[in-house]
Specification:
This protein is an alpha+beta fold. The protein is built from 8 helices and 66 strands. It is globular and about 115 Å long. The two termini are about 40 Å apart. Mean pLDDT is about 95; it is low at about 1-20.
């Protein structure tokens, strides 16, 4: 914390000059490229899979399209996955591998399962190298693509089923076709600007026969309508050139979403689920010309807007699978249905059946990917897909600190930000069920957590016992019903720790939810036209609280003045009180240009000034996907737009840095953006971070880390904002500069001799922070010619480490391990069974000099090492440990050099003896010397072969274990360890004396000694 006033002073003095002073420096994504965000997951619950396709073979090649996490690929049957589309639109609606060429893969972006929290896309992409590279080939404005099909006759003929815009009318929806592999497109089926293509299937034997389901639908912030007179089922018999609507046997009146499947066994048989006033499952035996109702079982009408995916079994004509809350199957063409059993997360959206072995299934759900080898009786969860969709993230003040958050359809969780060996799925714990949103840790007791699920259901949870208590405020007799947003806001007071909660009015509790006080009346527009949740859904009622409206959505209390509270609503009000809630002022009319009623997605009260706040507005609910970001410095009387051309995607969250007021972070639906000058200019941050939606950002007040909550790829940590806080105009215009970093913590590594986690490869491993101190520097231009390195010197001026430096333009970060190489051990038959023996001693706490060497230029700075805050060893004990481990380091190397000398003399003697005849007097002396040297060597190192564990212990093994054990603990060595070192030193001295006595004959026999300098040059 000692650097804080300095950095703040720098920021305040340089803020006004940053834009002008750095005009010749391009502030873009490359500037931040050396500060890579690290993913920590989790994948314990994975996330929503929207589509998948598989290439059968000896090992399945699996492509997975996620709701907002991009495309992942596996080449080992689904055991391990890697992301392959991180630099493109991340919401995947459709995915199809060319059946004739498995290297050609098509993806359609924009999720088609149109719940309230879905991301859009920007067209169709094509890969011709198995997903390594992608090219966008058109249809940029379709927003959502539900299906892609490749003609069985020609790989160049591809059909795209464009669902289109969710929140507004748009002409770019319908069925598109290309005949030249995506070079050009034609729209061959269009019904209306509010009616898109929901499903499309090509006859697997005759590419001229194509079926398309058209769907009239609309979602707004407060209502959803599925169905209308424009919905219908269409068929083409000329490869999509012309279409006609099919109605024979289908329900009369308005239709909703329709799903289609053609039987691979007999393509004349076509199946469909049809949403109608009474939804049903239908079968056609004449290529879709006429239809017969098979069943009106509830499976057919299970949330059709969200579950409309049918797959016909490749071997059994009457067997069909349908996605739903749970997957259903029929074996009699739809007359009866059963739920597929086994353990898997609900909400099935994607299904794949092995064409040669229908016992093998893959399903994609809201909770990830599952694999079955017995037709769904049992399932294997794929734990390598980190696709969690966080709405909000928070932290505690433990060390290392933990992060908390709520996820779409995957509850509320918490987990560590550091873990030896990486952060595994098992390190995450669930707190509360349902759709997870806010999770906040009580500042007075970190074992007490507040968490909620949809509709304002908030609980107080004790992590020690798991006990939960419902603390949701309820209306008293005669009061109107409270309206809670699906994602109702909570906020902890930065001054008192009180908890705020929002409905249409603002609540506050000072006793952990035992009682609530109201700080306002209705702060929304209270428009009854926007309070129709119970009627939402259209043909199929869908009342999940997702369209709850005219509610408070964001709350912020000023850290500088507890009486200043901000509230933003989902219907466009932006309210502020300066007297603790007695009076409120709606300042939304003061915000320029934003359309009236636009959702206020975030209010950020400045940590530096009570009158300053930031606000983001989200208009995508009305079809407006522009970013809206503003700042006020006068309590909302006037607002300044912070939008620049660099910003992309509608805005979710804005945060002001806790130290440098000019450093801002913005999360949009396309990623993370950073401003160094208070919002005058922005640059995308893409180092280690995919272009996934960023729904929340938090800055850890002690560590200075940026916690990034993405809605599609889990949580990322941008460690140590100190360098960003110090980027002044002078530094940006300098050719190079060393930047400050936070102190390096001599973190206790835990068990250095652990068996580790033997979980196999079917698990995502979040990246942890190693035993390192970071050194960050800036290069105005990429370093191309000559030397560039970082050197670290101890307080006495001794060079400790030389680190190769990154040469990229902008910020570069290198890691100093705080340890030299481990000591050189003499060759032996066994390993040294002590974890600390594999590492060098750590540099003691203190201040070290850092030099950036760039050809002839030298830049100098300091880095500080501090003890692990979790332990409190006395300074004298730490000092003794550090002195002892360095002495043992030297002892080990003394022994290693001695063994090397012995071996050197032995080998010379053997080689010289081999050139002489038997009986030669000199040969006898050489043989005797060689035997003596070997006897000395065997007395010092283990030589019994035992596959690494012979149990034999000599001086090498004992001294190595002692070094490793002392090196593995930061506290005072035990008296036994100190005494043992003294005893082993006597043995080492005696061994040296024996060698020296014998080595007197070396020169007389024409042999040489090995100098220590020579040994160090050749030793490994």
């Amino acid at each position: 914390m000692s650097a804080r006033p300095t950095l703040l002073a720098i920021a305040l003095s340089c803020a006004s000059a940053l834009a002008a002073g750095a005009q010749d420096v391009k502030v873009d994504a490359d500037l931040f490229g050396g500060l890579e965000a690290r993913p920590i997951g989790p994948a314990a619950m994975s996330g929503r899979i929207s589509s998948l396709d598989v290439v059968p073979g000896d090992k399945l090649t699996v492509y997975v399209g996620s709701a907002a996490g991009g495309v992942f690929k596996s080449v080992d049957g689904g055991l391990t996955f890697k992301p392959v589309s991180d630099r493109h639109a991340m919401a995947i609606g459709a995915l199809r591998v060319d059946p004739k060429d498995p290297k050609t893969v098509w993806i359609g972006t924009g999720e088609p399962w149109v719940r309230n929290s879905v991301s859009g896309g920007d067209g169709v992409y094509k890969s011709t190298d198995g997903g390594d590279n992608w090219t966008r080939v058109g249809l940029e404005h379709t927003e959502r693509i539900a299906r892609i099909e490749v003609s069985p006759q020609s790989s160049d003929t591809v059909f795209v089923c464009a669902l289109g815009h969710l929140f507004d009318d748009h002409p770019d929806r319908g069925v598109y076709r290309t005949k030249d592999g995506g070079k050009t497109w034609e729209k061959t089926l269009s019904v209306a600007d509010d009616t898109g293509c929901a499903d499309l299937v090509v006859d697997p034997q005759d590419g001229r026969i194509v079926y398309a389901a058209m769907w009239q639908f609309r979602r707004s912030a407060d209502f959803f309508t599925s169905g209308g007179p424009k919905s219908g089922l269409f068929k083409s018999t000329d490869g999509g050139s012309t279409w006609r609507e099919i109605t024979k046997g289908l329900p009369e009146g308005d239709l909703g979403r329709i799903a289609i499947a053609v039987s691979p066994v007999r393509p004349a048989v076509v199946y469909a689920t049809v949403e109608a006033k009474t939804s049903g499952f239908y079968r056609s035996d004449d290529l879709g010309e006429s239809w017969t109702l098979q069943s009106q079982a509830s499976v057919a009408g299970n949330r059709p807007f969200y579950f409309s995916h049918l797959v016909a079994d490749p071997k059994h004509l009457d067997r069909v699978y349908k996605g739903g809350t749970f997957m259903a199957v029929t074996d009699d063409a739809g007359r009866t249905w059963s739920t597929v059993g086994g353990s898997y997360h609900p909400d099935v959206h994607a299904i794949w059946i092995h064409p040669a072995n229908p016992e093998t299934l893959l399903i994609g759900t809201d909770g990830g990917l599952y694999h079955s080898w017995n037709r769904g009786n049992r399932w294997l969860f794929v734990g390598t897909l980190p696709l969690s969709q966080f709405y909000h993230v928070s932290y505690d003040m433990a060390f290392p600190y933990n992060v908390y958050g709520g996820m779409q359809d995957n509850s509320s969780w918490w987990g560590p930000t550091r873990k030896g060996g990486g952060i595994l799925n098992k390190h995450w714990d669930s707190l509360l069920g349902g759709d997870g949103f806010w999770v906040l840790v009580d500042p007075k007791d970190e074992d007490v957590v507040y968490a909620e699920y949809q509709g304002g259901n908030v609980f107080r949870i004790d992590k020690r016992t798991g006990e939960m208590k419902d603390i949701k405020p309820s209306p008293r007799k005669g009061e109107p019903r409270f309206r809670f947003n699906w994602n109702a806001p909570m906020h902890l007071s930065p001054t008192t720790g009180a908890l705020y909660f929002g409905a249409q009015m603002l609540f506050r509790t000072k006793d952990r939810g035992e009682s609530w006080e109201r700080l306002s009346g209705d702060l929304t527009t209270n428009d009854p036209k926007k309070q129709r949740q119970k009627q939402s859904g259209g043909l199929t009622l869908d009342n999940s609280t997702a369209e709850n409206h005219t509610t408070i959505y964001t709350i912020a209390e000023s850290p500088k003045d507890a009486d200043v509270i901000w509230v933003g609503t989902d219907d466009g009000n932006l309210q502020v009180t300066r007297d603790g809630g007695k009076t409120w002022t709606n300042v939304a009319p003061n915000v320029p240009d934003v359309p009236k009623g636009t959702w206020v997605s975030e209010v950020e009260a400045s940590p530096h000034d009570a009158g300053t706040a930031f606000a983001t507005f989200d208009g995508h609910w009305n079809g407006d996907t522009r970013p809206w970001v503003f700042r006020t410095t006068d309590y909302g009387k006037t607002w300044t737009s912070l939008v620049t051309p660099e910003l992309k995607g509608f805005a979710h969250v804005v945060r002001q840095d806790l130290v440098n007021p000019e450093l801002l972070f913005l999360g949009t639906d396309t990623g993370l953006f950073v401003s160094l000058d208070g919002g005058r200019a922005w640059a995308a941050f893409t180092a280690g971070l995919p272009l996934t939606p960023v729904h929340d950002l938090q800055i850890h007040p002690r560590e200075g880390d940026l916690i990034v909550g993405t809605h599609g790829r889990g949580i990322f940590i941008l460690d140590d904002l100190t360098p960003l806080r110090a980027l002044t105009p002078a530094m940006l215009n300098a050719d190079a500069a060393l930047l400050p970093s936070r102190a390096g913590i001599r973190l206790i590594p835990g068990s250095l001799l652990s068996g580790g986690d033997q979980n196999g490869d079917n698990e995502f491993v979040g990246r942890s922070v190693g035993e390192v101190a970071w050194i960050t520097y800036y290069l105005k231009k990429r370093h191309i010619v000559g030397d560039l390195r970082v050197e670290v010197y101890d307080p006495a001026g001794k060079l400790l480490s030389t680190i190769p430096g990154g040469k990229r333009r902008g910020l570069n970060r290198v890691e100093w391990s705080m340890r030299p190489h481990p000591p050189k051990f003499a060759p032996g038959a066994g390993i040294i069974f002590a974890g600390g023996a594999f590492f060098g001693p750590r540099a003691p706490e203190g201040e070290y000099t850092v030099k950036l060497i760039r050809n002839k230029d030298v830049y100098e700075s300091k880095v500080r090492l501090v003890p692990d805050p979790r332990v409190s060893y006395p300074e004298a004990d730490r000092k003794l440990q550090q002195e002892t481990v360095w002495k043992l380091f030297a002892d080990v190397e003394r022994l290693t050099y001695l063994v090397a000398e012995i071996t050197h003399v032995r080998d010379q003697a053997r080689a010289a003896s081999a050139t002489l005849k038997t009986g030669d007097a000199r040969r006898r002396k050489l043989d005797a010397l060689a035997a003596s040297m070997e006897a000395q060597r065997v007395a010092l190192v283990a030589t019994q072969e035992g596959e690494g564990i012979s149990g034999e212990e000599k001086l090498r093994e004992e001294l190595g274990v002692l070094y490793g054990n002392v090196n593995g603990n930061e506290g005072r060595p035990t008296q036994s360890q100190l005494d043992r070192r003294e005893a082993l030193l006597l043995e080492l001295d005696a061994a040296r004396a024996r060698f020296e006595a014998e080595a007197k004959s070396v020169a007389a026999l024409g042999l040489t000694r090995l100098s220590e300098e020579e040994w160090r040059k050749t030793a490994k």
